[in-house]
Amino acid sequence: DTLKMEVATYADGNQISKNIVEGTEYTHATVETNVDYTYVFKVTDGTNFSVGTIKKFFREGPSKITGISMSQVEKPVGFDAKVVWDKPVGATALIFSATNGVKNINETLKGDATEYVIEDVQFDEFWEVSVVAKNDKGTSLSVKTSLKIGKTAIGFLSIYATPEEHIAKGDDDEVCAWLWLQEEYPNATFVPM
Predict the structure, then answer these.
(1) Cα(28)–Cα(39) distance, integer angstroms
(2) Do residues 43 and 22 lie in contact, with contact meaning Cβ atoms separated by under 8 Å?
(3) Would you put residue 184 in left (φ > 0), alpha (ψ -120 to 50) or beta?
């Protein structure tokens, strides 16, 4: 039997993985910034384990973007796509990238930016966005989101077959909810179950 290596990975003191790898190399592909990583390497024959060697690593840089989301904004004619995220920690700049497969956007934003609007997107386009925080010590991992542009519809789900039956047989709260929705959103659709 050939010897293998067990690699236990800890992030800020908490074990996040344990892997058995062939050979003498191990690659940790997604190393977050500002996290104390500890790696415990042990040689094994499948039954017995060596005492182990401990290595530590800390990657400096801004924290990655959190709270990212994307929504479409309807205008009198057409749509915009709005991307928002939480204010980044430790960033002096943000690298914003977006594509729909044809059009590409690559912008460097201020480090405290929390939104970007992609103007004049088209119906049925699929947009993919990534945001990376950057400072003089490095860059964070990329954070991604996506959105397909389309019509927005509001529906009212009911156990009754028609709006008339809903009003005649539904309880007071259900009837009021349907009537309010019709008043506030005249294009709302009644959806029987």
Answers:
(1) 10
(2) no
(3) alpha
Confidence class for position 2, pLDDT limits 50, 70, 90: confident
Per the CB < 8 A criterion, the answer to whether 5 and 41 are in contact is yes
Distance CA 108, CA 185 (A): 39
Q: What is the DSSP letter of 172?
A: H
Closest C-alpha among 134, 119, 127 to residue 70: 127
* CB neighbourhood size of 35 (10 A): 14
Helix (H, G, I), strand (E, B) or coil at 48: coil
User: C-alpha dihedral over 114, 63, 100, 123, to 10 degrees?
Assistant: -40
Q: Please name the helix (run of DSSP H) or strand (run of DSSP E) that holds residue 176, with its range, or none.
A: helix 172-184
Predicted TM-score (pTM) of this structure: 0.71
- pLDDT the model gives residue 1: 59
Q: What is the 3-state secondary structure (H, E, C) of 120-169?
A: EECCCCEEEEEEEEEECCEECCCEEEEEECCCCCCEEEECCCCHHHHHHH
Report residue 42's pLDDT band, with 50, 70 and 90 as the boundaries: very high
Distance CA 34, CA 16 (A): 16
Q: Which tokens belong to 102?
A: 């044809």
Distance CA 108, CA 168 (A): 58
